[in-house]
Write a structure and sequence with these properties.
With 193 residues, the chain is α/β, with parallel strands linked by helices. Helix content is 33%, strand content 15%. The protein has helices at residues 32-41, 61-74, 91-101, 146-153, 166-179, 186-192, and strands at residues 20-26, 46-51, 104-109, 136-142, 157-159.
Length: 193
Amino acid sequence: NYLELPGQYDIIPGPARYLAVFALCAAAGSGKSAYLANYIRKQDKQVYYRFCGISQDSSRESELLYSLAEQWQQDGRLSRLPERSQFPAAFPMLFREAARHSPMTVVIDGLDELDNGEARLNWCRWARYPDCQGSRLLLSVKQGTVAAKRLNAFQRLTSLTLLDTPQARRALVEQKLRRSLKRLEPDQLDALC
């Protein structure tokens, strides 16, 4: 069961005039994937989700992006699919074509897992297609990785603070317990947080 923090979605603004690209950056284990999963659950537009590193293909930048384009073609968003050798360079234009169909959200979780963190990520630079209005590209990346540094250089990085300290975790648990009129002993709270 996901515990939503007050105001936590304020970091991803509402509909943008252009394609909105966001990269969430936080420490390992801080809740990036849970945050994105809850965000996805609340979307009213088509969502395409990929988690990097769970298979050989999801660890290679070009294969990951090709799999998204393949799904877009199956969904009728693309007229044709370029050869695999044209990826990742072809991705921005394909995103543009797919987004023209209707607004969509694309989530790539764990971007730092691509190619052992050595992915070029040049396809993350672009973000100003006015005909992609309402579409989003959401990325997650661990703090201090090569991918985080590249995204920061492209000015696409948003730091995310999710329960990254015992005090923050304790405050949230205490808030939820108060709302449900329950309480835990201090040693139980310490163990939980």
